[in-house]
Amino acid sequence: MISTRSILALTGLFLLIVLSFSGFLAQELQTSPVPTPEASPDASPTPSPTLPPSPSPTPLPGAQNFHQWGSITVFNGLPSDSVRAISQTPDGVMWFGTDNGLARFDGRRIQNYSPGGFETNRILALATAASGELWIGTPAGAFVYVNNRFQLVDGTKDIGITAILIGSDVYLGTNAGRVFRGNANGEMFFASPMTSDPLTKVDGIPPGITGLMEFDGKLYASTAGRGVFVLDDGKFSEYGTSPRPLFVNSLERDGDGKLWFGADATTRFSGIYSVDQGHRVSRIPALTAKVIALGSNDDGLWVGTERFGLFHIVESKVKKSYTFENTSGGLRSNTVLTLFTDREGVLWVGTNRGVSRFDSLGASQETISESANSNFIRTLFQQGENRTLAGSNRGLFVSDGKDWKPLPGFNGKAIYALAEHINTELMVGTATGLFDDSGRLIIPGDIRAFANFGSRTYAVVHGRGVVQILAGARGIGLSGSAGSPPPAFALDALVTTICEGPEKLWIGTADKGLFSFDGDSVKSEIGPDSLKSGAVWKMLSAADGALWIAGEHGVFRVFNGSAERIIDAEEVRDVFVDDGQVWAATTTRGLLQARQDTRFGWLVSAVGFEQGLPSEKAFAILPVKEGLLVATNRGVVTYRRGSVGPKLLLTRILSQRVHDLSEIRSNIQLDYPQTSLLIEVAGQSSRTFPEEFQYAFVLRNAKGEEMDRRLSNESQYAPNDLAPGEYLIEATAFNRDLLASDPLTIRFSVAKAPFPWTATALGVLLVLALFGLVWAFVANRRVLTRNRELAKARLDLANEAERERRRIARDLHDQTLADLRSLMLLSDNAAPKIAGFRDEIEAISGEVRRICEDLSPSVLENVGLVASLEFLLGRTIGKHHFTAKDNLEESLVFPMQVQLQIYRIAQEILTNIKSHSDADTVEMELNDTDEEFVLLIRDNGTTFRPEDVTNAGRGIANIKARASMIGAIIAWEKKHERGNRFSLRVPKRA
Fold first, then answer.
1. ∠ CA 490-495-500 to the nearest 5 degrees?
2. How many whole angstroms separate alpha carbon 679 and alpha carbon 671?
3. I need a labelling partner for 266 at 20 to 30 A (CA). Which of 240, 247, 467, 940 fits?
């Protein structure tokens, strides 16, 4: 069975789901008013199809401004959630002292340190000197962080340092009732006690020093158990007050010079005491109970308590209290351990659950009404010093600086324009007509803008043009009319807004550009093709004569007839210029601001949802005392521009190695062949997210000439391909408010290539080698020439020898043989006949013929080389074998002198075989290829070794000489069994 309790629970859950779904449908289906007559309950009969519809309002709860809070915990990298001390060094880096070590926060990452071992991990106090040293109080002594290292302060070892004051001197309070004065000797730090004896309580136990403060030229010390003491001339004296708190945990002096105590108190009592100039002590009424920490800044006094969070005291009264509950966790805990205000006015709160940051100067949101449509603010107007008007989609609201209240007579009306008539009467432009501040209708129509020009007041009536608004009788009030007055001038364009200029009335249109009216006639100033703004939504005339335009496609500056786009954005609805700072309200990117830099041109940054706006849709900007009041579709926002520029940190230098950051103090040397350097920087600001920073880099050479410049959100810069020489990089960071940091200068040099001794030596050797090569080439050419000449001479000599042989052979043949024949004839006729004489003569004649043939082989000329060699082989060797390639004779193209040398070589070889080889068989083979002629002679005689030949004979020398003359190659090879093989190879090119 189902119990009654279960049924009730299910019924409640069902009702909760139905109500949630109904609320969702109500939000989604709610009709939103738009700037057209059809959107209003009492619509104007004039249609306006060219104006874009406005975004729908979104229901908004009461503004809580939680964006002003931030937190850092163990989850983000803290070594412990208990943060007992906070300080900031001159480079903008935050330091947090926790129960488990020291944490460094540069806006991006957290690095944890231990000053001197485990016993020093509990950080009790932090303070930064003007010269940049960070003083650290621990249970085991005081340390100083300087030059990236921790140094123990001599004289404080094993002494608990509970309070540090950087005043006219450095003062250290201990847990043993003593106060030390810190000093420095070069890079060494030491401390000495300021009194001979410590403070003691009644029981003789020294109380711990909880706070130190200089006031009226004296040093005040608060204790846990004996109240406040004054240290003067080396002695402690009680600071007698009434009432006199004994357990004082903190001392603070505010901007007015007033001294404050934070002391123990029971529940429902205050632990805040103030001391005026007359040393009168008064307790501030506030339910703080025990007060642990005090801090002051330009906003007043801040009080951190043990149980009830953070209190803000202004003029000795509690202005507001902050707890974990009412900040939705923005304040991490109601137990506040320490307070610190950084250089930008941001309050840092150390708690037992991490550290919180509170930016009281951040964007402050306000809701006008509980109705979503009433929070859709379209226009703002300041009337007098203390009266601010806000026109919304559903009514007109007024504020006296405290609360927003609806103005009677405008309930349900869409307010588009607010201004004062030239007679100071308030004019309210709505979608249904122009009204005065009492709600009386002056003229009907869709009123969009007002402007005073000369002695007249004009209004823009959507769809009808510009009309003049007349004053009432005797100049009092406004003159009403039943119908809309006629246009003040004729203009064939849809007018969207007007603005008073020095000598003319500026007229903005939806699609026809910019016009002007001088009181008599209308003139076109800039056409739409040149202006390129699209619809002109708002204009502002500056003191320097420039006209600023908030247009459909950005913010434009018109000067001397030319238009310049300053901010590239869509749907800019309002523009405000102050001291060179340009502000633009857009419905696409929230609030934009721009500032012109002399070197980098116009810089632009955005303030949107992440920066504290309730919506990215902004419609109007109004300067107020606190800053800028911005109208959005979710109420109004007060934005305060910061006045403190960011800090710029160098995080990395990289070339072929990672450089130590201390190297920027001198000139960084880049060795050859490095021609590039990468630097990485980081902007530091408590009010700017890391991704919002813009970085500017300028590269200059040794002459100061600008080599390169860059502006972007990229924090790295890497110039490359640099020529040898000296260079300088100047880096600058711009924060959200476009404030510049001090420039960071990095000097470096790119080394020249060293003198190439090795390459030079190699080059010299190469030159010498080339010289030797050329010389060798020339010498070789000379040798070749000489060899050719010698070969030619040898050939000529051989030819001459052959000619001489032929002459001798011819003489022997013609003369000697003729004489032998005559002798033989005489012998035949002689009587008596001598026996054998004729035979002897014939034998001599045969020998002479043989000699003639040897001297000049006629067979070579008669039958050719092949047949001559075969004949030579047969005549010289008895048992022989001759082979020759078919038709070899026809393929031989050698000159006769070459053939003769081949013949002589073969003749010499065969003669040597016959004379020395004892061979009984000789083979000769003739062959040829396309490249050469080959002669092979094989025998089976005694093995022949050319290297064993002595100089006694000339046969081998003659063979080699003849071969060289015709460019032939000769070789003797030993056969496997017995005998020799001779080869002669003659190139056919010879």
1. 90
2. 17
3. 240
The two structure tokens encoding residue 266? 């029971």
Using CA atoms, how far apart are residues 735 and 684, in angstroms rounded to an integer?
Answer: 9
Per-residue burial over 545-569, b if 16 or more Cβ lie within 10 Å, else e, is eebbbbbbbbbbbbeeeebebbbeb
Beta bridge partners of 111: 104
How distant is the alpha carbon of residue 800 from its chain centre?
A: 91
Tens-digit pLDDT profile for residues 35-86 = 333 333 333 333 333 344 444 444 444 445 677 899 999 999 999 999 999 9
Q: What is the DSSP track for 860-883?
A: HHHH-HHHHHHHHHHHH-SSEEEE
What is the average pLDDT value for the chain, to the nearest integer? 86
**How far is the C-alpha of 75 from the C-alpha of 78, rounded, in Å?**
7
The span from the CA of 404 to the CA of 604, in Å, is 32
Q: Do the beta carbons of residue 195 and residue 235 sit within 8 Å?
A: yes
Contacts of 121 (CB under 8 A, 6+ apart): 79, 99, 100, 101, 114, 138
Cα 472 to the chain's mean position, in Å? Answer: 65
In three-state secondary structure terms, 109 is: coil
- Strand 922-928 and strand 880-884: pairing? parallel
> What is the Cα–Cα distance from 30 to 59, expressed in whole angstroms?
10
Q: Are 307 and 295 in contact (CB under 8 A)?
A: no
**Strand-strand pairing, 744-750 and 668-670:** parallel
Query: How many Å apart are CA 682 and CA 704, to the nearest integer?
Result: 25
Least confident stretch, 345-359, 711-725, 910-924: 910-924
Residues 6 or more apart from 299 whose CB is under 8 A from it? 312, 314, 345, 347, 360
The answer to whether the Cα torsion of 539, 540, 545, 551 is positive or negative is negative
**What type of residue sits at position 919?**
A
Residue 784: strand, helix, or coil: helix
Amino acid 5: pLDDT: 45
The C-alpha atoms of residue 608 and residue 839 are separated, in whole angstroms, by 144
Q: Which helix (H) or strand (E) holds 736?
A: none
CA 58 to chain centre: 39
590 has a pLDDT exceeding 90: yes
To 10 degrees, what angle do helices 955-965 and 757-811 make?
110
Amino acid at 301: L
How far is the C-alpha of 474 from the C-alpha of 459, rounded, in Å?
21
State the pTM of this model.
0.72
Q: What percent of the residues of the chain are helix, what percent strand, and what percent coil, each to the nearest 5?
A: 20, 40, 40
> How would you classify residue 445: left for phi > 0, otherwise alpha for psi between -120 and 50, otherwise beta?
left
The full 3-state SS of 608-658, as one line of letters, equals CCCCCCCCCCEEEEEEECCEEEEEEECEEEEECCCCCCCEEEEEEEECCCE
Which run of H or E residues covers position 156? Answer: none
Q: What phi and psi values does residue 122 have, to the nearest 5 degrees? A: -85, 110
Residue type, 8: L
Nearest partner of 913 among 873, 881, 862, judged by Cα:
873
Would you call 139 exposed, middle or buried from its count of C-beta atoms within 10 A (0-12, 13-18, 19+)? middle
Distance CA 984, CA 990 (A): 14
CB of 735 closer than 8 Å to CB of 688: yes
* 562-567 sheet: strands from edge to edge: 536-541, 547-551, 554-559, 562-567
Residue 55, number of CB atoms within 10 A of its CB: 17
Residue 854's alpha-carbon distances to 216, 821, 849, in angstroms, are: 144, 21, 9
Quick check: helix, strand or coil at residue 367? coil
> CB within 8 A of 616, min separation 6: which ones?
586, 587, 588, 589, 590, 608, 609
Q: Taking the CB of residue 734, how many other CB atoms lie within 10 A of it?
A: 26
Q: Cα separations (Å) of 640 from 403, 505, 589, 619, 949?
A: 19, 32, 18, 18, 117
